[in-house]
Amino acid sequence: MRRLDAWARYSPHQGRFPKYGQAYESKAVTDGEPNEELAKRFYCDVIEDKNRLAGIQSDAEGFAKLRDYFREWWLVSVGVQPDLPPNHDDDDDDDDDDTDDPGLDDPALEPNESHDDPRFRSVLVVDEECLRSLIEELPDETPPLRTAVDREEWLKYLRMGKKAWLWMLDTGYMTRDESQFSPPGFRGWFRLGPTELLWAWYEWKSYLHRQPDPSWKVREKDGVPGVWWYYY
Questions:
Q1: Is the pLDDT of residue 59 over 70?
Q2: Which of 55, 66, 91, 211 is deepest in the core (most CB within 10 A)?
Q3: Pick from 174, 167, 171, 144: which is nearest to 156 by CA?
Q4: pLDDT in tens, 115-145
Q5: Which domain holds residue 175?
Q6: Which string of b and e fits 14-29 if b means at least 16 CB within 10 Å?
């Protein structure tokens, strides 16, 4: 988890140093404070419940059990009801005065928090296969925060950790009717790399705020049907 956390926190800095060589050093973003602030906002609550989670398989039945477990955990342990609707209204194109409606744009209301926050929808799952990929493919050290010296070094950094992955479950998406699945066949769980965690997290936050039932950017790859991967 320490290694995974380090790579997740590294990901906001990736775009600061484009390509390689002296020609691109002047294009690097030297002020990394905003990126670091974004990274600090990401953290995970690690849950290990051997009595209830041991033996669950990484398949449709197993993921459904995990979905129900975590939705129960959010309700009982955190006090959040994931199924409550948002309390905001994004239709700001009219001139109506909605300031008297207490159900709009009130960050203190729990429905908005539970609906719009991926923290109360998304679950990261580390099974045996996933753990093996993290151990074998994720280096201890992240690339240095500087422009690569040459193309060889740049490609080396781009490839680091690319074969490591973990599962993400969108428990809200998984409760949809099958007719609402998009792309067809995608049921709400997928694989993504450690450097994609923050992208997926904040991108989904943005989607949820703009529309009630957005779709993930996922695709099948490596010739394995039914195994979906996140991309951005």
A1: yes
A2: 66
A3: 144
A4: 567 777 889 999 999 999 999 999 999 999 9
A5: 2-45+53-89+101-230
A6: bebbeebeeeebeeee
Query: Does residue 95 sit within a domain?
Result: no
Distance (Å, whole) CA 186 – CA 178: 9
pTM for the model: 0.77
- Residue at 96 is within a domain: no
Q: Return d(Cα 146, Cα 34) in angstroms, integer.
A: 16
Peptide bond into 183 cis (omega under 30): yes
Q: Is the residue at 76 inside a domain?
A: yes
CA distance 157 to 42: 23
Number of structural domains in the chain = 1
